[in-house]
Amino acid sequence: MTDTILVLLETTPARTLTRSAAGLLAAARELGTAVALVVGDGEVATLADEAMGAGAERVLVARGDATALTVPVVDALDAAFDRVSPAAVLVPNSVDGRDAAARFAARRHLPLAVDAVGVERDDQGVLARHSVYGGGYDVTSASTFGPLVVTVRLGAIDARADRVADVPVETLDVAASDAPAAIIERVEPVVATSARPELRGASAVVSGGRGLGSAEGFALVEQLADALGAAVGASRAAVDAGYVAAAAQVGQTGVSVSPRLYVALGISGAIQHRAGMQTAQTIVAVNKDPEAPIFAIADLGIVGDVFTVVPQAIAALEAKRS
Ligand SMILES: Cc1cc2nc3c(=O)[nH]c(=O)nc-3n(C[C@H](O)[C@H](O)[C@H](O)COP(=O)(O)OP(=O)(O)OC[C@H]3O[C@@H](n4cnc5c(N)ncnc54)[C@H](O)[C@@H]3O)c2cc1C
Questions:
Q1: Which residue in 308, 321, 115, 298 sits closest to 207, CA to CA?
Q2: What is the pLDDT at residue 126?
Q3: 150 in a structural domain
Q4: Which residues form the Electron transfer flavoprotein alpha/beta-subunit N-terminal domain (predicted)?
Q5: For the chain, which terminal residue's Cβ has fewer other Cβ atoms within 10 angstroms, N or C?
Q6: C-alpha 141 to ligand 1 mean position (Å)
Q7: What's the pLDDT band for 1 if we cut at 50, 70, 90?
């Protein structure tokens, strides 16, 4: 059985690798030989170097038309798959990654495992681990035919790999498939108004729920997030009440996160919320109701009023820093 693991790395609009690269390459290194695929429309040498820095043992670079959505990436995956005959293909479980992985698996008639929180290997091949039904069950999927294409949840893999010496970089000749693709006509950069980390893939998340009572009250969530250098999340009830933008919603119909630290403030812990955060490594909950279901999954539960507990936590963090 081949030990090559093909890893699709994504790029940001600023032409750097996204943060998912390091975890994916580290996971691939644990399974076999990590071969990175980077697709770019311009200078790809810096992307290749970034991939090496994140642990790639071999780098394939492909030029693709950046004005077409997904299809150039699928064409590059197609060519890379033929070049290296991998035992599995790892793709970030981002919006674009899911699109590319699904199209690629369909095109090559390969099995697809989505939203994995880990990967492993047995003597028959690569396996994907998933956390399902609101984090209530851990399941493992294996393919009965062909190498598995796996989308890996952003932030789910903590491992990191070292740079290796003498990494070969190969240019792929990619034959354009002419499959229908949406064309990007215009890109308008939105200037980030916050220095906070992005929710997807963040290593720490502070989320607030209906218990914050108002948009003004929700500022407390943002203050604790800033004190911890964390991203801001929310329950659906907080979003529906207009305390915070819908992009912050964590859960079944929101974003799934797997941070090292998840702090839930004034969140009851409904199954639909837990579905998006239960794989966090450490869960801290503050709720004034000792019976709140969030305490069943919390590593540290504080029964109390958020408006009493959280300012003390922020003050303690600031005192530690000064
Ligand atoms: C199909 C479907 C999909 C859904 N998808 C999602 C989803 O993606 N994400 C999501 O979050 N929900 C989702 N929901 C909604 C979910 O069922 C819950 O209604 C929601 O998560 C509740 O949000 P909450 O915990 O903020 O509010 P509540 O359930 O009202 O809980 C508020 C909590 O705050 C506590 N509290 C109140 N005041 C204070 C205080 N001063 N200090 C400390 N604690 C206080 C209360 O004790 C309570 O536990 C979905 C529901 C459905 C049906």
A1: 298
A2: 97
A3: yes
A4: 5-187
A5: C
A6: 31
A7: low
